[in-house]
Design a protein that fits this description.
By secondary structure, the protein is mainly α. It has 8 helices and no strands.
């Protein structure tokens, strides 16, 4: 048994989520899923209509796949997010106006979030904490200079 303490599932999930563009991938996958749910035609009708009907199912399926790939392979997030935004915009024409705009918007926002995510970025420090640190440093400098004089 290793010496490190065992983490709870919630803390382990938080650590996993922090190392990837979680919300971007999730929104892209949800957008594709929503578009798939708004499709009402059966597969026989889709095959009879042809490529236009097939694209109505193909684009949202690829959106779900890209959302999952963003979650599980974040190193390729730029390619996946650019492809995801193109598929989201393409769903406007092929899939009931992008799932009645909801799936289109979810996919576009998710792709943008995944594209803008930066790995290994320090969490932002609030203005209050920065001021407190600056005061503590200034106080330490003044007490040092008073002690040497």
């Amino acid at each position: 048994m290793p010496d490190r303490p065992r983490l709870g599932p919630r803390i382990a999930f938080r650590g996993w989520r922090a190392r990837r563009p979680f919300w971007g991938g999730l929104l892209l996958a949800l957008g594709g899923g929503e578009i798939l749910l708004t499709e009402k035609a059966s597969l026989k009708v889709v095959l009879h209509i042809g490529m236009q009907g097939l694209a109505g199912y193909l684009l949202p399926t690829l959106m779900v796949l890209l959302g999952l790939l963003i979650l599980f392979n974040p190193s390729q997030r730029l390619f996946y997010s650019i492809t995801g935004i193109l598929l989201s915009l393409g769903s406007w024409l092929t899939s009931n106006l992008g799932g009645f705009f909801i799936g289109l918007l979810l996919g576009a926002v998710g792709s943008c979030l995944a594209f803008g995510w930066l790995p290994d970025q320090e969490p932002p420090v609030s203005r209050r904490k920065r001021r407190k640190q600056e005061r503590a440093e200034a106080h330490a400098l003044t007490s040092e200079s008073a002690g040497t004089a």
